[in-house]
Write a structure and sequence with these properties.
Blueprint lengths: L4 E10 L7 E3 L2 E5 H12 L10 H12 L3 E2 L1 E4 L2 E2 L5 E2 L1 E5 L21 E6 L4 H13 L12 E6 L2 E4 L5 E4 L2 E4 L2 E14 L4 E2 L8 E2 L33
Helix pairs in contact: 1-2
C-alpha cells in the first residue's frame, strides 16, 4: 500500500467495570442517539418494524421516549449539561456519526482534545428543523439553534447517570452509570492513500499531498466556546 503514515488520537472510555475499558477512534455519543441504536438492535429481526424499517422505528421511539435524558456531564471540571437533562451529547475525535451526520465539523484528530457538543432538551418540532443543520455540519454556526447547544473542547469528560444508561462507543452499546472519557494523543498510526481528501469537509485538507478544494458553508454567528484547560504533559502512546 503506497500510503503515508499519520499518527492520530484515540478517545478512552472507562465505565469502571472490569474488562470493559474501550478505545474510540471516531465518536462516543449518548442520549437520543443511543436510544435509536438500542431500539434498532432490539427490533431488527421483527417483520413489520425491523429490517429496513429499524432505523425509522428507532427514531420514532427516540421522539417518544428520549427527548429529555438524565445525566450530568463535566468537561475539564466544568458542568456542561442543563440541570441534569440533555437531548443528546457527542464526544468526538472524528467528524461523522451514523454514516451521514456531520456532528463534529470542527473535529481534529491530531489536537489532543475532545470535541464536546451538548444539545439541550427542545421541542420535537425544533428537533426536526435542526436535522438539516446537524446533517451538513452547520449546527454550531446556525444562530437559530445557538441557545440549544453547548460546545467546547476538553481533555477529560465525566458522565454520571442513573441505572439503565448507555453510551454508543463507535456504534457499540456500553452500559454504565459513571463514565470517564479521556484522549491519548498520537496513539495509533493510520495510513491512507496520498492525496486522499479527508471527509472532515475543511477546504483543501488532505492526507499527504495534492490538496483538493471542497465546499465550506458560509460563516454565521458562532456558538460560544469555552477555552480548554491548560496544557498538561503529553501522554505516552497507548497500545491497541
Amino acid at each position: 500500500l503506497d500510503a503515508p503514515e499519520d499518527e492520530i488520537d484515540l478517545l478512552t472510555v472507562d465505565n469502571g467495570k472490569p474488562g470493559e475499558f474501550r478505545y474510540s477512534i471516531n465518536i462516543t455519543n449518548f442520549g437520543f442517539d443511543t436510544t435509536v441504536a438500542k431500539t434498532m438492535i432490539k427490533v431488527k429481526r421483527k417483520k413489520i418494524i425491523g429490517g429496513k424499517r429499524a432505523y425509522v422505528t428507532g427514531v420514532l421511539t427516540g421522539l417518544i421516549k428520549a427527548m429529555r435524558n438524565k445525566c450530568e456531564i463535566t468537561a475539564d471540571g466544568e458542568r456542561v449539561d442543563t440541570k441534569g437533562r440533555i437531548l443528546l451529547c457527542t464526544l468526538a475525535n472524528g467528524g461523522y456519526v451514523g454514516g451521514s451526520f456531520f456532528c463534529a465539523p470542527r473535529a481534529d484528530n491530531h489536537d489532543g482534545l475532545i470535541e464536546v457538543t451538548v444539545f439541550r432538551p427542545l421541542s420535537r418540532i425544533t428537533f426536526v428543523r435542526m436535522l438539516g443543520s446537524y446533517t451538513n455540519g452547520t449546527h454550531l454556526d446556525d444562530a437559530r439553534f445557538k441557545k440549544y447547544i453547548t460546545y467546547r473542547r476538553a481533555k477529560d469528560v465525566t458522565v454520571k447517570a442513573p441505572e439503565g444508561f448507555s453510551m454508543s462507543v463507535d456504534g457499540e452499546i456500553v452500559d454504565g452509570t459513571e463514565f470517564k472519557i479521556g484522549i491519548v494523543q498520537k496513539a495509533i498510526r493510520f495510513a491512507a492513500p496520498e492525496g486522499c481528501v479527508l471527509i472532515a469537509g475543511r477546504s483543501g485538507e488532505t492526507v499527504g499531498s495534492a490538496p483538493v478544494k471542497t465546499e465550506t458553508p458560509a460563516e454565521e454567528p458562532p456558538v460560544e466556546e469555552v477555552a480548554p484547560a491548560k496544557e498538561t504533559a503529553a501522554e505516552e502512546p497507548a497500545t491497541v
